[in-house]
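Checklist before submission:
- one chain only
- standard amino acids only
- sequence pasted in full

Submission:
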Amino acid sequence: MGKLYLGFDAGTQSVKVAVYDAGWKCIASCSKPTTLGYPNPGWVQMDPNEYFNNTVECMKQCAREIRSKGYDPADVAAIMGDGVICGITGIDEDGNAVTPYVNYLDSRTREDAEAINAKGLDIWGRETGNPEANCMFPALFARWFLKNSEAFRSRGVKFVHNAPYVLMHLAGLKGRDAFIDWGAMSGWGLGYRVMDKQWSDEQLRILGIDRKYMPRILKPWDIVGGLSPECAAATGFAEGTPVCAGAGDTMQSMLGCGVFEPGQGVDVAGTCAMFCVATDGIVPELSRPGSGLIFNSGSLPDTYFYWGYIRTGGLALRWFKDSVALKNDDPKYYTHLSEMASEVPAGCNGVLFLPYLTGGMGDEDEASGCFLNLTLDDNQGVMWRSVLEAIGYDYMEITDTYRAAGVPLRRLTVTEGGSRDSLWNQIKADMLASDVVRYRTAGGAVVTDCVFAALAAGDVKAVRPALEKTITKDAEYAPNPENTKLYRKLLEKKKQLVKTDMKAAFHTLRQMKKFD
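Returned file contents:
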């Protein structure tokens, strides 16, 4: 019945696996949630083996599904996956994890980042486009493991991201075979030369990270091996099916929603709400200290982008549904919340949520999550809209930075799970004074992975023409000028609260967290 391609997205909240045919129709899909652990205040860590086990189980379900539809799992021509760009684990000689998987939600390296930035070195911005260390950078997690993990110091041989960890295990590879693609490499934040797509010996020396711990750098579509006999038996797919090197989730999501040219913007509405703009290289105005933006290399050659973020953007939505509304077993409750919130006027009658559930950043590093201005008249609908607007206020500040650097951002594409919410999209259009476009394929990363798998298999000659066949506009949202004016006034009030009025209160609240 023709060739098939398998892709997976190893995200923060779940693993998603899907099989597409050569016409880019989804034949089978499956997802399984992941588990986040919070062993200490500010720490967030996961089990890398859960990523692998979830992937295997989802592949097994997909194999069953395609058989039921008359397809043969042996027709899968290649396997490709993507994962979180800011997160690593340490592995031993057998390729097994000897540390937890720590990602961008974790703040244990905050003091280390401050110490690095106090040195005022310019090599970071010059070689990576990122002028400052950030506590969510894998480079700092590696430093932490080297200082604090006896297991890694005694048995560790490499650091790897979560998608390569899964791909290595699917192919039965050892620690010495560890790899990373040239886009996800830039997720390290520091330690590499972004334009050369190589590790930087000088930066690694300054960071105190031995080059021997760094994985080899590959192209996303490079084939690293074949599906092992053990994984073939466990998943139902054919032994020897080519396994690709993988890519970063943000890079794949951008391509999957049609961001191919410099100046185009996309909101990757996942766990970490990320507001990305494609460029043709480092833009000095955006790579200055204090901009709050991160610079990365894309999956394709000569592609680059900046992104601003709210670390707990999408996670704040899940937190509210699961922990406040107590609907952790009802994924459809998001729809009910937005239906209630649609009856609430823009600005929530002054109710404000601060989404800093894992702490603030920069000058607001002591900020914490909280609701402000609630009264007895307010309900879940008001609180939900205030959570959505809170992420939007941070997006407004990021948008102002882009526009000040000459990026007009009159049109914004939304992708991933949050893009399905029409109210959320309209709020973004109003707050950002920009048209918001949603495409039919909301989870663009996985279908992009499958296109890359086809490239690796030699079945397509170029990624862009193939992806353009998958992109169909689903909806468009135009800004309401009156709401835009209101949000601009409210943003100034919110900035005054967070940056000035509440700094002492945040400091006191931080001290209260330390009491026994």
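Reviewer check: The mean pLDDT is 92.
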